[in-house]
Structures are given as C-alpha cells and as structure tokens.
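step 4 of 6: structure.
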Amino acid sequence: MNNTIVSYLSQFESYKGLLESFSSMFGEAGPGLLTFLVFLIGCILVVTVLATIGGLGTYAERKISADMQARMGPNRVGPYGLLQFLADGVKMFLKEDLIPNKADKFIFGLAPLLALVGVFGTLAVLPFSSGFTLANLNVGVFYLIGIGSLVGVAIFLGGYASNSKWSMLGGMRGASQIISYEIPVVLSLMAIVLMSGSLNFGGLVGAQGGLPQEWFIFHNPFTFIGFFVFFIGALAETNRAPFDLPEAESELVSGYHTEYSGMRFAFFALAEYIEVFVVCGVGAAAFLGGYNVPLNLGGEGILGQVLQILVFFGKTLALYYLVIMIRWTYPRLRVDQLMTLCWKYLTPMAIFNLIGCALWIYLLDGKSVWDMLAAFVGSMGTGGGH
Amino acid sequence: MEATYSLDVYTPVVILLFLGAITVVAALLLGKLVRPHNPSESKNTPYECGEQPVGSAWSFFNMRFYVIGLIFIIFDVESALMFPVAVVFKKMNEIGRGGLVLVEIMIFLSVLISGIAYCWRKGDLDWVKSYVPGKDTSNK
C-alpha cells in the first residue's frame, strides 16, 4: 500500500540504488535523510504548483468575469494577459507595509501567516494520484477539516487585530459563517466516510471507480444530495460569492482585510484561492471519483500516474470553474439568510443524508443504484425466458 | 513498515507548515529592502472612508455571534466523536454486526437532532428576532 510518495518511489530500482549510495555516504542517517529530501522536494513542488494555480486563479476569475460581462479583462501583460498575476505580485511586493497605530501589532502580523500555514497544511493530504500523495494519513479527512479551520481563525484574528470597524464586522461575520458551515460540510463528508469505511483519501478514492456510475455522487440519492450540501457549504467556508459576506466590498469596504496592504494582503488572497482549489479537490476526491481513470488506464507506472494526475486536475479545475461562474452569477446573501440557509436547511439535510446513507448500507449492503438496476434488469432477462 | 521507511508519515505535514511560515516571513523581510516606508499620522489611522474614527473598534459586540459559537461547539464535538463510529460501520456491517453500529449512529444523531430542534424552538437560529409587544421573547 502506498502511504506516502516515498513508499511509492521505493518500488523503483533507481530509488533503491539512490538509497544505497545515501546509506554508504551518511551511514545510519542515510535512509532518513533521503526520505526527508524526497518529502522536501515533493512539498516544494506541490506548493509551487498550487501557488501558481492560485495566481492563475485570480487571472481566470478576472478573465471569466470579463467574458460574462462582455469585457476584455486583463490582456496587456504577457500573451492574453496570462502574466497579470505576476505583475500584481510584484506590485504588492513593492507596496508600503501599513499597520494602523491602534492595531494589535503581533496578532495583525500573525493572521496572514496563520492563513497561509493553514492552507499549506491541507495540501499534505490532497490525493493527486495513487502514488503522488504527500502523506496518505490514516486520519486524512479529519486532519483536513481540522487544519483547514486555521484559515477561519486567521480571518477572525485579522479582523479583530486591525482595530477598524469594517474589519471587525468582517472578521465577526467570517468567523460565524465559517464555523456554521463547517457542520454541513463535516456531516456530508461523514456520509462518504460511512460509504467507504475509511478516513484516508486513498481509501475514499479507492472505494470509487473511473466511470461516473462508480462515483460516490451517483451511488445513491443521499450522496447525490450530499454532494450539493458539501459544495454549498464549501463555497461558504472559503468565503466565495454568494457567501462573501466577510469581505462584502459594497457594504464593508473590504471586510477583514481592509487594513491590510502589500504582501500581507497578497497572502490572504493567495490563501483564499489555494483554499478554493483544495476544497474543489476534496469534492472531486470524495464525490467525483478522484484520480480514478476510466477503464483502469491509470496504473502504478509513470504513465498511469500522469494520467491519474491529469484526471484529478481536470475534475478539480472543472469545479473551480463552476465556483468562479457562481461568483459572477448570483447576488450576495444577507446575514440572516446565510444563517437560515445553514442551520435550517443544510444542517438538517446533511443529518438526513447521513441517516439515509447509514440505512442504505445496512439494508441494501451498500450496493449502488446502478448495481441494483443491473441486477434487476438481469432478473427480468432470466424471468422473460420462462 | 518497510525498511526504507525511517521517517514518520507526518513529516510532510511539518515541512508544509514550516514552508507556509517561512514564505510569509521571508517575503516580508525581503520586501523590507525594496518597499518604501513613509508612515504618517493620517496614513496609520483605521480606514473609515475619510471620516475621523470615533472610539475603538474593540467594543461590545452582538450576542448572536456568541450563541452561534456555542451551538457550533456542541455540534462540532458531536461530529468529531461520530467519526470513529462512521469509520468502523462498513467493516462491522460486513461481519454482520451492522445493526449495533447503526443503533450507535442513531443515538449520536438523535442527540444532534434534539439539539438542533431545541435551538430552533428556542429561536436561537433566527438571526433577526422579531419583537412582539406583550410577549416576552427573552425567556421562551
């Protein structure tokens, strides 16, 4: 079983050769050092790719919104304006770093750090392919939910520490919104944990197949509703419109990051865009079959792994596109509507789904709708023979 | 565990957390070399659309957020406790003990459901509480 990227790599001959040379060079510490190096390279690779995707996310957001509003969007920097996010990054790097006089300076500096640390932490369990998962923790889902909540803490602390009224309102709204929507998200993920009987992402994805009828979303009616509960909750947890109340630009100036400028603001924005990708990735892994390639084309070899990574990124980016489309389609909710939607609709629905899934496994042995349909058609066929 | 496996599975987690912290600190320290630094009194006041800020933002805040926080804690602890039960359910079902675990799940969920029903009835889930003259809504 592939627990980490290291245990995947260790099946190759060249890795074993490398291991031997490390052992002869550093003695006892050799294997540990090599493992650490592989982890370090893997982590840096994932962070770099995801930061680029986060940057391109801001570009995609502006380009898609421009498309939907019959404008051009960014088109000056690089081909089709593709390098716009780099230009923005350089600009923010050169901006003056302002900290309000009355702010709590320590917490003010801590907040963007917490946001980025929380988001980077979630990357450890994101299942890119069966071999290339940084750490397939046995408590993966639990860990992801836990470390992802750091972003909520960061948003609240950022709003609180600024000592500005807009920030305070935004931070308070952010905190209450993120913790409220945590419940439906956790409960719908728990339904998937029930179905697969495992908390690690490898197990979740392994319990599904490559073709749509083998995905958990189409497994039974409850998981189908569960996906939408999860997706709506995830939108709210990442503060994406129509749930962008913490930074509602037309009422709160800029919400919890009103007082942030330059790089500190950039880290909040980067954290948000990477978090959207992570949430989409979790949705793709838990409900949409994850990295499973149709017709079992994705094997253990290098080519199979590349196919798996492509499939995972395809599904995730499709969800990402949907998130951006939703932002530019729907108007923002009011605070009271937000709370009503969460506590009076999504949470009861998620509990109902959980009971439904539990009963489905108990009464129907966890067969999917398609299995039963196939069995039914089969019995009709034999019945017709009489 | 294999022989090559001499570091913990949680190593990438630690590395990633450090990477996040290092990125922020390094970018801010490096930026110090190139960015301007001309603070002034008006630049460092909190932004209130050009008005002079009156008082601090750290003042009394609406009680509703506190209630939401309390409800969240109850629900979150409950769901954290439910995860172990959820994980073993499928395996127990395969060896024919699914009914037992199902009953356990139902016990957990009934506590959750009664909790949400209580809060709903109590009016804690209503963001805007309407005031009806002559009717005491504070102690329903």
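step 5 of 6: annotate
 - Chain A has a mean pLDDT of 84.
 - Chain A has 13 helices and no strands.
step 6 of 6: archive
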